[in-house]
Design goal:
Length: about 300
C-alpha cells in the first residue's frame, strides 16, 4: 500500500520514524559502518548545488556522514532542508488548526463502524486507547499509529540525517534555509479531502504489520545508494492514491526544481538535503531539473 511509502516522503510527519531494527539490519546484510547514500551535483561556472537524499530517523551505528558526503558538505556555504525546525510557540496552534477536529468532530463520527473497528483494534494493539486519538483528523491519526511501534523500537530522530547536518551546520555558523514552513507541510495533509485522509489512515492500519520490514529494506536501499530499489519501494502502490502522490511528491518536487533553477543564477555552493523519496522515480527532482535543462550528475564514491 502507499501509506508506508508516503510516510518516508514527508519529513515533519515522519520525523519520529525509524528504519529497521538491529535484527532486521543484520538480515538485509549491509555494512552499517560504511554506508554510502546517493549524492548528486548540479553545477555551472560559478554555482554548485549538491543534492542529498535523507532518512529522517536513523540508528546511531549507521556511518554515512563521511567520504563524498562530508566533503560536499564541507565545501558548501548553505544548507537547504525541506523545513527548518519551527519555533515551539508555532507548533501547538498549527497542530490545533491542521491536525485536530473542532468541537463536535471526531474519528468515531468520521469513520464507518467497520473502519472504526479496524482502527480501534490497531490502536489497542499498540497500547494506545482509541479514545486518546478521537480528536485527531484521520491523516494525523494515521501518522500517530505509524510512529508508535517504530519509536518503541528505539530509533532516534536525533540520529536522522537532517539533525546531524543541522548540528554540523550550526557548529560552522553555516546559513540554513527551509524550502517550506511547518504550517505549509501540515497543510499538505490537512488540505486533503476527508475521503483521502480516511484512505490514508486505513491504508496505514492495514500496513502496520509489515512496517518494520519495509523500513529495513528502505534503509538498505538508502545506505547502499541503490536508487532503483528506493524508487521501487517508494512507488509501489502509488497508483492507488494518486491525489496523495501528487500533493506530497510530484508538486513539491516541481517546486523545489524551480527553486534550484533560480538559485543557479547566483554564485556559491549549496548542500540540499531532502527526503530520499524525492530523489528517486519518474517524478524526482532530477527529472524536473532535466526538464529545465539542468543536469544532476551522480557522484560515484
Amino acid at each position: 500500500m502507499a501509506f508506508k511509502k508516503l510516510l518516508k516522503l514527508f519529513a515533519p510527519a515522519a520525523a519520529l520514524l525509524g528504519f529497521g531494527s538491529p535484527a532486521l539490519a543484520e538480515e538485509v546484510g549491509f555494512d552499517r559502518g560504511d554506508a554510502d547514500p546517493a549524492l548528486w551535483v548540479v553545477s555551472d561556472d560559478d554555482t554548485k548545488i549538491y543534492l542529498f537524499g535523507t532518512m529522517h530517523a536513523l540508528k546511531p551505528d549507521l556511518v554515512w556522514f563521511d567520504d563524498a558526503v562530508a566533503g560536499a558538505f564541507a565545501e558548501s556555504d548553505e544548507l537547504v532542508l525541506e523545513m527548518l525546525e519551527p519555533d515551539e510557540m508555532e507548533i501547538a496552534p498549527v497542530l490545533r488548526r491542521e491536525a485536530m477536529y473542532a468541537t463536535g468532530g471526531g474519528l468515531s463520527k468520521t469513520l464507518t463502524p467497520e473502519q472504526y473497528g479496524r482502527f480501534s483494534a490497531a490502536a489497542t494493539g499498540l497500547g494506545i486507547p482509541p479514545q486518546a486519538l478521537e480528536q485527531l483528523k484521520p491523516w494525523f491519526a494515521g501518522v500517530t499509529l505509524a510512529t508508535a511501534p517504530l519509536a518503541r523500537l528505539g530509533y532516534l530522530p536525533d540520529s536522522g540525517a537532517e539533525q546531524i547536518l543541522q548540528n554540523a551546520a550550526a557548529e560552522r555558523g553555516m546559513t540554513q534555509i527551509g524550502l517550506e514552513t511547518f504550517a505549509q507541510q501540515m497543510g499538505f495533509f490537512s488540505g486533503l479531502s476527508e475521503e483521502d485522509q480516511v484512505a490514508f489512515l486505513m491504508s496505514g492500519v492495514d500496513d502496520l504489520p509489515d512496517m518494520a520490514q519495509t523500513f529495513a529494506e528502505m534503509e538498505q536501499a538508502w545506505a547502499t545508494g541503490d536508487t532503483a530499489a528506493a524508487a521501487r519501494l517508494l512507488n509501489e502502490g502509488m497508483d492507488e492514491t494518486p491525489v496523495l502522490y501528487d500533493v506530497l511528491l510530484a508538486k513539491r518536487n516541481a517546486a523545489w526544481a524551480e527553486w534550484i533553477g533560480e538559485r543557479m543564477t547566483q554564485p556559491g555552493t549549496v548542500f540540499i538535503a531532502v527526503g530520499a523519496g524525492h530523489l528517486a522515480g519518474d517524478d524526482s527532482v532530477q527529472v524536473r531539473l532535466a526538464e529545465k535543462g539542468l543536469t544532476a550528475t551522480r557522484i560515484e564514491y
